[in-house]
Amino acid sequence: MKILIAEDEALLLKLLVDKFKRENYEVTGCQNGLEAIDLFDQIQPDIVITDLQMPFSGGYELIFHIRKTRSAHTPIIVLSSTNVEDKIVSSLELGANDFVEKPFRFNELIIRVKRLLETTV
């Protein structure tokens, strides 16, 4: 299973990539939304994990690209430090499947990924 992770915090991105690789996923990570959009089209991941606020283009644009431009049903988990209800609701209305607030527990995130993949793949 292929995971695309878009996260602008370099250390967190490395931790996420390493953790999911240890779980035997094929993982591609990037630090901005524009690169994430390009990578989505190239690798066609089975699931996407994205932050909302990133340089150049954010998570909203990535979700829009996946859902509207590509009409893809790829599961999307938003990982964000925002606790503003409007932002959470907006990301879900735009097409995200789940929202996980930072800080988060890695094992909980892994379980959420596994559950989404079981129900969609």
Count of discrete alpha- or pi-helical segments spanning 4 or more residues: 5
Arithmetic mean pLDDT: 94
Total strands: the figure is 5
Give me the secondary-structure category.
alpha/beta
Distance between the termini: 10 Å
Proportion in β-strands:
15-25%
Strand order of the largest sheet: 2-1-3-4-5
Biggest sheet statistics? 5 strands, parallel
Shape: globular
Question: What is this entry, summarized?
Answer:
The chain has 121 residues and is an alpha/beta fold. It is 50% helix and 19% strand.
How would you describe the overall organization of this protein?
The protein is α/β, with parallel strands linked by helices and about 120 residues long. About 50% of the residues lie in helices and about 20% in strands. The chain has helices at about 10-20, 35-45, 60-70, 85-95, 105-120, and strands at about 1-5, 25-30, 45-50, 75-80, 100. The protein has a 5-stranded parallel β-sheet, with helices on both faces. Strand 3 (about 45-50), helix 3 (about 60-70) and strand 4 form a beta-alpha-beta unit. Helix 2 (about 35-45) packs parallel to helix 3. The longest helix is centred in the last third of the chain and has 15 residues, at about 105-120. The chain starts with a strand and ends with a helix.
List its traits.
globular; single chain; 5 helices; 121 residues; alpha/beta
Task: Note the topology.
Layout: E1 2-6, H1 10-22, E2 26-30, H2 33-43, E3 47-50, H3 59-69, E4 76-80, H4 85-94, E5 98-101, H5 106-120
Parallel strand pairs: 1-2, 1-3, 3-4, 4-5
